[in-house]
Amino acid sequence: MNLILQGQSVSRHLVEQLAALARPRSIAAIGEHAYRCQDVTYNDEVKSQIDLAAWSAKLDYAFVEPRASLSDFGLVAMDMDSTLITIECIDEIADMQGLKPQVAEITEAAMRGQIEFKESLTRRVALLAGLDASALQRVYDERLQLSPGAETMLKAVQAAGLKTLLVSGGFTFFTDRMKERLGLDYAHSNQLEIIDGKLTGRVIGDIVDGEEKKRTVERVCAELGISPEKAIVMGDGANDLKMMGIAGLSVAFRAKPIVRAQADVGLNFVGLDGILHLFSH
């Protein structure tokens, strides 16, 4: 196995100290702040030691197959809120109603897996009843930002021929715009009901929860004629775990502890483009 170590700022000396736990044959820089440690010792004890040391040093790590390539995959599936973008859209919409603390508290509990997602979304959307629908555009224009490294990552995976899917427990108002803006192939999310220019506090149709996210990845993979093992799936919250569980590579991005614990790779400090360093170029 190879060990990839990367961070927002990292010295070779620190990498050499940390990598020594896995006794690499050699260490090579693969970016300004990324290193590949080749032919390392890999077992549960070493992984546990690296995990603790890397977190303390504010470095991200991943044990990868030496010949892993982006071309081994056919799809990148991404959660939207707090993964592809930096905000939770529903929290920012609620801020327009003066209800951000109440909604954000429910959002946080849902992402940690403490509340079932369908219940949490129903409760949060109900609090938005009566809000002018123009608030959605204001959130998009004034508050929505891509996560660090998102565009670099997407350009690389698209250039490698992978298809892209944005699958979200958020809302079509935002996923449709992100799909067009970023040239994504697929998008699936919830549709807010709007009557006479006002949010009704309801969602149209079935709610996109963790199970529906998984089914969406399966549907898109079937359409592409590939196995879900050929999918890279990225997320941050408990409702992403089911789709991450069927992926060939699951990536927890700035994620809740329950998600970090189950993902193949955690990106806690670098941007989304950190996944590119996991593959040979």
What percent of residues are in strands? 15-25%
Distance between the termini: 17 Å
Integer average pLDDT: 95
What's the helix-strand series? EHEEHEEHHHHHEHEEHEHEHE
Query: Architecture of the largest domain in CATH?
Result: 3-Layer(aba) Sandwich
Catalytic activity: O-phospho-D-serine + H2O = D-serine + phosphate; O-phospho-L-serine + H2O = L-serine + phosphate
Active site: 79, 81
Family: Belongs to the HAD-like hydrolase superfamily. SerB family.
GO biological process, one term: L-serine biosynthetic process
Report on this structure.
It comes from Oxalicibacterium faecigallinarum. InterPro entries: HAD-like_SerB, HAD-like_sf, HAD_sf, PSP. Its EC number is 3.1.3.3. This is Phosphoserine phosphatase. Pfam families: Hydrolase (PF00702). By secondary structure, the chain is of the alpha/beta class. The protein has two domains: 1-66, Alpha-Beta Plaits (2-Layer Sandwich); 70-281, 3-Layer(aba) Sandwich (Rossmann fold), CATH 3.40.50. The protein contains eleven helices and eleven strands. The protein has helices at 12-19, 44-56, 89-95, 100-111, 117-126, 134-142, 150-159, 172-182, 210-224, 241-245, 257-260; strands at 2-6, 26-31, 34-38, 60-64, 75-78, 163-171, 186-195, 198-204, 231-235, 249-253, 265-267. Strand 2 (26-31) and strand 3 (34-38) form a beta hairpin. The longest helix is centred in the C-terminal third of the chain and has 15 residues, at 210-224.
Structural key phrases:
alpha/beta; single chain; 7-stranded mixed β-sheet; Alpha-Beta Plaits; Rossmann fold; 2 domains; 4-stranded antiparallel β-sheet; 281 residues; 11 helices
